[in-house]
Amino acid sequence: MENQKNLELNEQAIDALRVSAKWSMFLAIMGFVGIVFMIFGAIFMSSVMSMIPQTPGPFGNLRGFISIFYIAMAALYFAPIYYLYKYASDMKNALLSSSSDLVATALGYLKSHHKYLGVSIIILISLYFLMVVGMIVFFASSAMSGSKF
Questions:
Q1: Does residue 1 carry a pLDDT above 50?
Q2: HSE (CB half, 13 Å, CA atoms) of 90?
Q3: What is the pLDDT of residue 58?
Q4: How far is residue 35 CA from its own chain's centroid?
Q5: What b-and-e string marks burial along 69-86, b requiring 16 or more CB atoms within 10 Å of the CB?
Q6: What's the pTM value of the predicted model, to 2 decimals?
Q7: Is residue 118 scored above 80 in pLDDT?
Q8: Residue 79 near residue 115, CB atoms below 8 Å
Q9: Of 35, 36, 9, which is closest to residue 106 (Cα–Cα)?
């Protein structure tokens, strides 16, 4: 590759990457602990909700939903936490071995982490927007029909 440009990092950049990897590792470990707590919460809520007698109506259907919600949230949190962990461990190894290939791999995981979070935020904002539009339509149709909700 004749046209390949080499980027050399000075000590300040290497130190910034080293500190970034340490904090990312801390955040990843805390994220994994949080995921474990969510799973324990799902198990706990499942056992508590099973002791409550089945009641007709909307609250009776929530018994299984809460546990499923906790497990789904844990599953959604796993990917970005895993990417952050891989970034931190690969960056640490890259700086120890002075390997530009490992730096590229580590930065690829950081890119995936940020991309996952960015897409998640876009989806969340879209859902909020749809909820607001849905509420406006619901309240407008209720007001026009004269019914009280």
A1: no
A2: 17
A3: 62
A4: 10
A5: ebbebbeebeebbbbbbb
A6: 0.80
A7: yes
A8: no
A9: 9
Is residue 44 predicted with pLDDT exceeding 80? Answer: yes
What is the overall mean pLDDT for the chain? 89
Between the alpha carbon of residue 15 and those of residues 7, 10, 18, 21, the distances in Å are 16, 9, 5, 10
Largest CA distance in the chain: 75
Token pair 């120890």: residue: 96
Alpha carbon of residue 1 to chain centroid: 38
Contact 84, 112 (CB under 8 A): no
Identify the residue whose tokens are 């339509």: 137
- In degrees and rounded to multiples of 5, residue 7 shows phi and psi of -105, 125
Helix ranges, the chain (H): 11-51, 62-97, 100-145
